[in-house]
Protein backbone atom coordinates (compact mmCIF):
# COMPACT_ATOMS: atom_id res chain seq x y z
CA UNK A 1 0.00 0.00 0.00
CA UNK A 2 1.18 3.53 -0.67
CA UNK A 3 0.98 5.41 2.60
CA UNK A 4 1.67 8.97 3.67
CA UNK A 5 2.42 10.47 7.06
CA UNK A 6 2.10 14.12 7.98
CA UNK A 7 4.36 15.19 10.83
CA UNK A 8 7.76 13.59 11.40
CA UNK A 9 7.96 14.02 15.17
CA UNK A 10 8.02 11.25 17.77
CA UNK A 11 4.73 9.71 16.63
CA UNK A 12 5.00 10.26 12.86
CA UNK A 13 8.46 8.69 12.75
CA UNK A 14 7.34 5.74 14.90
CA UNK A 15 4.28 5.12 12.72
CA UNK A 16 6.48 5.32 9.61
CA UNK A 17 8.68 2.59 11.09
CA UNK A 18 5.62 0.39 11.72
CA UNK A 19 4.25 0.82 8.19
CA UNK A 20 7.62 0.42 6.47
CA UNK A 21 8.31 -2.73 8.49
CA UNK A 22 4.97 -4.13 7.30
CA UNK A 23 6.22 -3.71 3.75
CA UNK A 24 4.36 -0.53 2.79
CA UNK A 25 5.77 2.42 0.89
CA UNK A 26 5.80 5.45 3.16
CA UNK A 27 6.23 9.13 2.37
CA UNK A 28 6.63 11.42 5.39
CA UNK A 29 5.94 15.11 5.05
CA UNK A 30 6.81 17.73 7.65
CA UNK A 31 6.60 21.49 7.33
CA UNK A 32 9.86 21.78 9.26
CA UNK A 33 12.85 20.53 7.21
CA UNK A 34 14.95 20.13 10.37
CA UNK A 35 12.32 17.78 11.85
CA UNK A 36 12.37 15.77 8.62
CA UNK A 37 16.13 15.23 8.65
CA UNK A 38 16.04 14.41 12.37
CA UNK A 39 13.37 11.81 11.61
CA UNK A 40 15.49 10.30 8.82
CA UNK A 41 18.52 9.88 11.07
CA UNK A 42 16.48 8.54 14.01
CA UNK A 43 14.75 5.98 11.75
CA UNK A 44 18.12 4.94 10.32
CA UNK A 45 19.50 4.37 13.79
CA UNK A 46 16.33 2.51 14.92
CA UNK A 47 16.66 0.03 12.05
CA UNK A 48 20.40 -0.32 12.71
CA UNK A 49 19.76 -1.06 16.39
CA UNK A 50 17.20 -3.73 15.46
CA UNK A 51 19.84 -5.35 13.23
CA UNK A 52 22.45 -5.21 16.01
CA UNK A 53 19.99 -6.87 18.39
CA UNK A 54 19.38 -9.59 15.82
CA UNK A 55 15.70 -8.69 15.40
CA UNK A 56 16.16 -7.88 11.70
CA UNK A 57 18.64 -9.10 9.11
CA UNK A 58 20.69 -6.33 7.51
CA UNK A 59 18.77 -6.93 4.24
CA UNK A 60 15.44 -6.45 6.02
CA UNK A 61 16.73 -3.38 7.78
CA UNK A 62 17.90 -1.79 4.51
CA UNK A 63 14.69 -2.79 2.74
CA UNK A 64 12.43 -1.32 5.42
CA UNK A 65 14.47 1.85 5.69
CA UNK A 66 14.37 2.29 1.92
CA UNK A 67 10.55 1.95 2.00
CA UNK A 68 10.50 5.42 3.62
CA UNK A 69 10.82 8.62 1.57
CA UNK A 70 10.85 12.18 2.89
CA UNK A 71 8.90 15.07 1.36
CA UNK A 72 9.26 18.75 2.16
CA UNK A 73 6.03 19.45 0.30
CA UNK A 74 2.55 18.02 0.93
CA UNK A 75 2.38 17.15 -2.79
CA UNK A 76 4.72 14.27 -2.02
CA UNK A 77 1.70 12.47 -0.53
CA UNK A 78 -0.58 12.71 -3.56
CA UNK A 79 -0.29 9.02 -4.53
CA UNK A 80 -1.12 7.76 -1.03
CA UNK A 81 -4.02 5.37 -0.42
CA UNK A 82 -3.82 5.96 3.33
CA UNK A 83 -2.58 9.12 5.04
CA UNK A 84 -2.00 9.30 8.80
CA UNK A 85 -1.67 12.76 10.30
CA UNK A 86 0.56 13.14 13.38
CA UNK A 87 1.20 16.89 13.64
CA UNK A 88 0.83 19.31 16.54
CA UNK A 89 -2.27 18.81 18.74
CA UNK A 90 -4.14 21.93 17.57
CA UNK A 91 -7.60 21.68 16.02
CA UNK A 92 -7.24 24.73 13.76
CA UNK A 93 -3.90 23.55 12.35
CA UNK A 94 -5.14 19.97 11.91
CA UNK A 95 -8.31 21.14 10.10
CA UNK A 96 -6.24 23.23 7.68
CA UNK A 97 -3.93 20.28 7.00
CA UNK A 98 -6.93 17.99 6.38
CA UNK A 99 -8.28 20.52 3.85
CA UNK A 100 -4.91 20.66 2.11
CA UNK A 101 -4.39 16.93 2.01
CA UNK A 102 -7.91 16.23 0.77
CA UNK A 103 -7.31 18.56 -2.17
CA UNK A 104 -4.18 16.60 -3.02
CA UNK A 105 -5.07 12.90 -2.75
CA UNK A 106 -7.43 10.65 -4.76
CA UNK A 107 -11.14 10.52 -3.93
CA UNK A 108 -10.85 7.14 -2.19
CA UNK A 109 -7.73 7.81 -0.11
CA UNK A 110 -8.40 7.21 3.61
CA UNK A 111 -7.29 10.06 5.86
CA UNK A 112 -6.61 9.24 9.49
CA UNK A 113 -5.57 11.26 12.51
CA UNK A 114 -3.40 10.16 15.42
CA UNK A 115 -4.88 12.80 17.73
CA UNK A 116 -4.94 11.92 21.45
CA UNK A 117 -7.48 14.44 22.64
CA UNK A 118 -9.40 16.12 19.82
CA UNK A 119 -12.69 14.74 18.54
CA UNK A 120 -12.41 12.91 15.23
CA UNK A 121 -15.75 14.48 14.22
CA UNK A 122 -14.31 17.99 14.52
CA UNK A 123 -11.29 17.10 12.37
CA UNK A 124 -13.42 15.25 9.79
CA UNK A 125 -15.72 18.29 9.56
CA UNK A 126 -12.95 20.15 7.73
CA UNK A 127 -13.20 17.71 4.80
CA UNK A 128 -15.59 17.65 1.86
CA UNK A 129 -15.66 13.84 2.12
CA UNK A 130 -15.63 13.37 5.93
CA UNK A 131 -16.81 9.75 5.51
CA UNK A 132 -13.20 8.77 4.67
CA UNK A 133 -11.81 10.21 7.91
CA UNK A 134 -11.09 8.02 10.97
CA UNK A 135 -8.91 8.05 14.09
CA UNK A 136 -5.96 5.63 14.26
CA UNK A 137 -4.41 6.28 17.65
CA UNK A 138 -0.98 4.76 18.27
CA UNK A 139 0.82 4.77 21.60
CA UNK A 140 4.32 6.06 22.22
CA UNK A 141 6.74 4.58 21.17
CA UNK A 142 4.65 3.31 18.23
CA UNK A 143 7.03 0.53 17.12
CA UNK A 144 7.02 -1.01 20.62
CA UNK A 145 3.47 -0.47 21.84
CA UNK A 146 1.10 -3.11 20.49
CA UNK A 147 -2.15 -1.25 21.09
CA UNK A 148 -3.87 0.91 18.45
CA UNK A 149 -7.24 2.54 19.14
CA UNK A 150 -9.47 2.88 16.08
CA UNK A 151 -11.99 5.68 16.37
CA UNK A 152 -14.74 6.11 13.79
CA UNK A 153 -16.28 9.59 13.75
CA UNK A 154 -20.04 10.06 13.35
CA UNK A 155 -19.27 10.90 9.72
CA UNK A 156 -17.08 7.80 9.02
CA UNK A 157 -18.59 5.55 6.35
CA UNK A 158 -19.93 2.12 7.29
CA UNK A 159 -17.38 -0.61 6.90
CA UNK A 160 -14.28 1.58 7.12
CA UNK A 161 -13.66 0.70 10.78
CA UNK A 162 -13.46 -3.01 9.94
CA UNK A 163 -11.16 -2.34 6.96
CA UNK A 164 -8.83 -0.27 9.13
CA UNK A 165 -8.95 -2.93 11.84
CA UNK A 166 -7.72 -5.53 9.35
CA UNK A 167 -4.91 -3.20 8.21
CA UNK A 168 -3.81 -2.51 11.78
CA UNK A 169 -3.71 -6.25 12.56
CA UNK A 170 -1.62 -6.83 9.42
CA UNK A 171 0.91 -4.29 10.78
CA UNK A 172 1.41 -6.60 13.77
CA UNK A 173 -0.62 -4.39 16.12
CA UNK A 174 -3.59 -5.06 18.40
CA UNK A 175 -6.53 -2.94 17.29
CA UNK A 176 -9.42 -1.97 19.57
CA UNK A 177 -12.46 -0.01 18.50
CA UNK A 178 -13.70 2.88 20.57
CA UNK A 179 -16.30 5.62 20.39
CA UNK A 180 -15.27 9.17 19.55
CA UNK A 181 -15.45 10.36 23.18
CA UNK A 182 -12.82 12.22 25.25
CA UNK A 183 -9.68 10.19 25.98
CA UNK A 184 -11.00 7.27 23.85
CA UNK A 185 -10.36 4.16 26.02
CA UNK A 186 -6.94 4.39 27.61
CA UNK A 187 -6.76 8.10 28.40
CA UNK A 188 -10.25 7.97 29.90
CA UNK A 189 -10.09 4.78 31.94
CA UNK A 190 -6.57 5.49 33.27
CA UNK A 191 -7.43 8.92 34.73
CA UNK A 192 -8.11 7.71 38.32
CA UNK A 193 -4.66 6.07 38.45
CA UNK A 194 -3.27 9.59 38.57
CA UNK A 195 -6.12 11.65 40.02
CA UNK A 196 -7.03 9.37 42.93
CA UNK A 197 -3.36 8.99 43.82
CA UNK A 198 -2.94 12.78 43.92
CA UNK A 199 -6.14 13.10 45.93
CA UNK A 200 -4.78 10.70 48.58
CA UNK A 201 -1.53 12.67 48.63
CA UNK A 202 -3.38 16.01 48.93
CA UNK A 203 -5.43 14.67 51.83
CA UNK A 204 -2.22 13.65 53.55
CA UNK A 205 -3.16 9.97 53.66
CA UNK A 206 0.39 9.15 52.55
CA UNK A 207 3.36 10.58 50.68
CA UNK A 208 4.18 9.88 47.02
CA UNK A 209 6.65 7.12 47.80
CA UNK A 210 4.13 5.21 49.93
CA UNK A 211 1.36 5.52 47.34
CA UNK A 212 3.78 4.40 44.62
CA UNK A 213 4.90 1.46 46.74
CA UNK A 214 1.27 0.45 47.38
CA UNK A 215 0.52 0.40 43.66
CA UNK A 216 3.64 -1.52 42.66
CA UNK A 217 3.81 -4.06 45.46
CA UNK A 218 0.13 -4.63 46.25
CA UNK A 219 -1.34 -3.48 42.93
CA UNK A 220 1.33 -5.12 40.77
CA UNK A 221 1.67 -2.09 38.47
CA UNK A 222 5.06 -1.62 36.80
CA UNK A 223 5.35 1.99 38.02
CA UNK A 224 3.58 3.88 40.77
CA UNK A 225 1.41 6.84 39.74
CA UNK A 226 3.84 9.56 40.88
CA UNK A 227 6.87 7.92 39.26
CA UNK A 228 4.80 7.49 36.11
CA UNK A 229 3.53 11.09 36.07
CA UNK A 230 7.09 12.35 36.57
CA UNK A 231 8.15 10.11 33.71
CA UNK A 232 5.38 11.21 31.32
CA UNK A 233 5.92 14.87 32.24
CA UNK A 234 3.42 17.12 34.00
CA UNK A 235 3.01 19.28 30.91
CA UNK A 236 1.68 16.27 28.97
CA UNK A 237 -0.16 14.52 31.82
CA UNK A 238 -1.80 17.65 33.23
CA UNK A 239 -2.91 18.81 29.78
CA UNK A 240 -4.52 15.44 29.01
CA UNK A 241 -6.38 15.54 32.34
CA UNK A 242 -7.56 19.10 31.74
CA UNK A 243 -8.65 18.32 28.20
CA UNK A 244 -10.58 15.18 29.24
CA UNK A 245 -12.24 17.18 32.08
CA UNK A 246 -13.39 20.07 29.89
CA UNK A 247 -14.43 17.75 27.06
CA UNK A 248 -16.69 15.89 29.51
CA UNK A 249 -18.52 19.14 30.28
CA UNK A 250 -16.64 19.37 33.56
CA UNK A 251 -17.80 16.07 35.03
CA UNK A 252 -16.25 16.14 38.56
CA UNK A 253 -15.06 12.58 38.06
CA UNK A 254 -12.32 13.88 35.77
CA UNK A 255 -11.38 16.98 37.77
CA UNK A 256 -7.67 17.87 37.51
CA UNK A 257 -5.68 18.56 40.66
CA UNK A 258 -4.17 21.79 41.86
CA UNK A 259 -1.00 20.05 43.06
CA UNK A 260 -0.21 18.89 39.56
CA UNK A 261 -1.19 22.24 38.05
CA UNK A 262 1.28 24.00 40.34
CA UNK A 263 4.09 21.64 39.32
CA UNK A 264 3.23 22.35 35.69
CA UNK A 265 3.18 26.12 36.29
CA UNK A 266 6.48 25.99 38.15
CA UNK A 267 8.11 24.10 35.30
CA UNK A 268 8.67 21.10 37.57
CA UNK A 269 7.75 18.78 34.75
CA UNK A 270 9.24 15.61 36.19
CA UNK A 271 12.29 13.64 35.14
CA UNK A 272 13.00 15.77 32.11
CA UNK A 273 13.48 18.90 34.24
CA UNK A 274 15.01 17.11 37.22
CA UNK A 275 12.07 17.77 39.48
CA UNK A 276 8.42 16.82 39.68
CA UNK A 277 6.70 15.09 42.58
CA UNK A 278 10.18 13.72 43.26
CA UNK A 279 13.49 15.54 43.17
CA UNK A 280 15.95 13.91 40.78
CA UNK A 281 18.93 16.16 41.57
CA UNK A 282 22.06 14.18 42.28
CA UNK A 283 22.63 13.54 45.94
CA UNK A 284 18.97 14.07 46.92
CA UNK A 285 17.90 11.55 49.47
CA UNK A 286 14.88 9.66 48.15
CA UNK A 287 11.82 9.47 50.40
CA UNK A 288 11.38 6.02 51.94
CA UNK A 289 7.87 4.57 51.71
CA UNK A 290 5.90 3.85 54.86
CA UNK A 291 5.88 0.06 55.00
CA UNK A 292 2.59 -0.14 56.93
CA UNK A 293 0.79 -2.82 54.88
CA UNK A 294 -2.68 -1.89 56.17
CA UNK A 295 -2.17 1.66 54.95
CA UNK A 296 -0.79 0.48 51.60
CA UNK A 297 -3.72 -1.92 51.13
CA UNK A 298 -6.17 0.91 51.81
CA UNK A 299 -4.43 3.09 49.20
CA UNK A 300 -4.27 0.34 46.57
CA UNK A 301 -7.94 -0.55 47.12
CA UNK A 302 -9.11 3.01 46.70
CA UNK A 303 -7.21 3.68 43.47
CA UNK A 304 -8.13 0.30 42.10
CA UNK A 305 -11.87 0.58 42.73
CA UNK A 306 -11.84 3.99 41.07
CA UNK A 307 -10.10 2.48 38.01
CA UNK A 308 -12.52 -0.45 37.88
CA UNK A 309 -15.45 1.96 38.21
CA UNK A 310 -14.18 3.93 35.23
CA UNK A 311 -13.80 0.79 33.11
CA UNK A 312 -17.27 -0.42 34.12
CA UNK A 313 -18.77 2.95 33.24
CA UNK A 314 -17.06 2.91 29.84
CA UNK A 315 -18.68 -0.49 29.26
CA UNK A 316 -22.03 0.83 30.54
CA UNK A 317 -21.85 3.68 28.00
CA UNK A 318 -20.76 1.37 25.16
CA UNK A 319 -17.45 3.17 24.66
CA UNK A 320 -15.90 -0.18 23.74
CA UNK A 321 -16.53 -3.90 24.11
CA UNK A 322 -15.47 -5.59 27.32
CA UNK A 323 -12.76 -7.46 25.44
CA UNK A 324 -11.39 -4.26 23.89
CA UNK A 325 -11.42 -2.51 27.28
CA UNK A 326 -9.29 -5.29 28.72
CA UNK A 327 -6.89 -5.31 25.76
CA UNK A 328 -6.57 -1.53 25.87
CA UNK A 329 -5.53 -1.37 29.52
CA UNK A 330 -3.21 -4.37 29.48
CA UNK A 331 -1.52 -3.56 26.16
CA UNK A 332 -1.77 0.25 26.05
CA UNK A 333 -0.60 1.00 29.59
CA UNK A 334 0.63 -2.45 30.67
CA UNK A 335 -1.81 -2.92 33.56
CA UNK A 336 -1.18 -6.24 35.29
CA UNK A 337 -4.77 -7.38 34.66
CA UNK A 338 -7.80 -6.25 32.72
CA UNK A 339 -9.90 -4.02 35.00
CA UNK A 340 -13.13 -5.93 34.39
CA UNK A 341 -11.45 -9.24 35.22
CA UNK A 342 -10.01 -7.57 38.31
CA UNK A 343 -13.49 -6.37 39.27
CA UNK A 344 -14.78 -9.90 38.91
CA UNK A 345 -11.98 -11.20 41.13
CA UNK A 346 -12.52 -8.64 43.92
CA UNK A 347 -16.28 -9.04 43.64
CA UNK A 348 -18.74 -6.41 42.43
CA UNK A 349 -20.49 -6.18 45.80
CA UNK A 350 -17.21 -5.44 47.52
CA UNK A 351 -16.38 -2.77 44.92
CA UNK A 352 -19.81 -1.19 45.18
CA UNK A 353 -19.54 -1.05 48.97
CA UNK A 354 -16.17 0.69 48.77
CA UNK A 355 -17.42 3.21 46.20
CA UNK A 356 -20.62 3.94 48.13
CA UNK A 357 -18.61 4.41 51.29
CA UNK A 358 -16.43 7.02 49.54
CA UNK A 359 -19.51 8.66 48.04
CA UNK A 360 -21.27 8.94 51.39
CA UNK A 361 -18.16 10.18 53.12
CA UNK A 362 -17.28 12.88 50.59
CA UNK A 363 -20.68 13.69 49.10
CA UNK A 364 -18.85 14.20 45.82
CA UNK A 365 -20.09 13.10 42.43
CA UNK A 366 -16.56 11.95 41.65
CA UNK A 367 -17.23 8.81 43.69
CA UNK A 368 -20.55 7.81 42.11
CA UNK A 369 -20.61 4.14 41.25
CA UNK A 370 -21.37 3.20 37.68
CA UNK A 371 -24.90 1.84 37.18
CA UNK A 372 -23.19 -1.12 35.49
CA UNK A 373 -21.74 -2.19 38.85
CA UNK A 374 -25.02 -1.55 40.65
CA UNK A 375 -26.85 -3.71 38.08
CA UNK A 376 -24.27 -6.43 38.47
CA UNK A 377 -24.81 -6.51 42.22
CA UNK A 378 -28.61 -6.56 41.78
N1 LIG B 1 3.73 11.92 22.01
C1 LIG B 1 2.83 11.04 22.42
O1 LIG B 1 3.00 10.35 23.44
C2 LIG B 1 1.58 10.82 21.61
C3 LIG B 1 0.89 9.59 21.73
C4 LIG B 1 -0.24 9.38 20.93
C5 LIG B 1 -0.68 10.38 20.09
N2 LIG B 1 -0.01 11.58 20.02
C6 LIG B 1 -0.52 12.60 19.07
O2 LIG B 1 0.28 12.53 17.88
C7 LIG B 1 0.40 13.84 17.31
C8 LIG B 1 1.88 14.20 17.18
O3 LIG B 1 2.50 14.11 18.43
P1 LIG B 1 4.10 14.07 18.56
O4 LIG B 1 4.38 13.78 19.99
O5 LIG B 1 4.67 13.22 17.50
O6 LIG B 1 4.46 15.59 18.27
P2 LIG B 1 5.88 16.20 17.85
O7 LIG B 1 5.87 17.60 18.36
O8 LIG B 1 6.99 15.28 18.23
O9 LIG B 1 5.82 16.24 16.24
C9 LIG B 1 4.90 17.00 15.50
C10 LIG B 1 5.52 17.28 14.14
O10 LIG B 1 4.51 17.90 13.32
C11 LIG B 1 5.14 18.89 12.54
N3 LIG B 1 4.12 19.85 12.11
C12 LIG B 1 3.49 20.78 12.87
N4 LIG B 1 2.57 21.44 12.12
C13 LIG B 1 2.65 20.91 10.88
C14 LIG B 1 1.95 21.18 9.66
N5 LIG B 1 1.01 22.12 9.60
N6 LIG B 1 2.26 20.44 8.57
C15 LIG B 1 3.23 19.48 8.63
N7 LIG B 1 3.92 19.20 9.74
C16 LIG B 1 3.63 19.90 10.86
C17 LIG B 1 6.21 19.49 13.44
O11 LIG B 1 7.23 20.12 12.68
C18 LIG B 1 6.71 18.25 14.18
O12 LIG B 1 7.82 17.67 13.54
C19 LIG B 1 -0.41 14.76 18.22
O13 LIG B 1 -1.70 14.87 17.69
C20 LIG B 1 -0.42 14.02 19.55
O14 LIG B 1 -1.54 14.36 20.33
C21 LIG B 1 1.12 11.81 20.75
Known CATH architecture of the largest domain: Orthogonal Bundle
Class by helix and strand content?
alpha/beta
Runs in which pLDDT lies below 50 for 5 or more consecutive residues are none
| Percent helix range | 40-55%
Strand order of the largest sheet: 3-2-1-4-5-6-7-8
Q: Assembly state here?
A: single chain
> What is the level 1 CATH name of the largest domain?
Mainly Alpha
Average pLDDT value? Answer: 97
Question: How many beta-strand runs?
Answer: 8
The portion of residues forming beta strands comes to 5-15%
> Structurally, how many domains make up the residues?
2
CATH topology of the largest domain: N-(1-d-carboxylethyl)-l-norvaline Dehydrogenase, domain 2
End-to-end distance, in Å? 51 Å
SSE topology string:
EHEHHEEHEHEEHEHHHHHHHHHHH
Q: Largest beta sheet, briefly?
A: 8 strands, mixed
Individual helix count: 17
Radius of gyration: 22 Å
Give the bound compounds. nicotinamide-adenine-dinucleotide
Gross morphology is globular
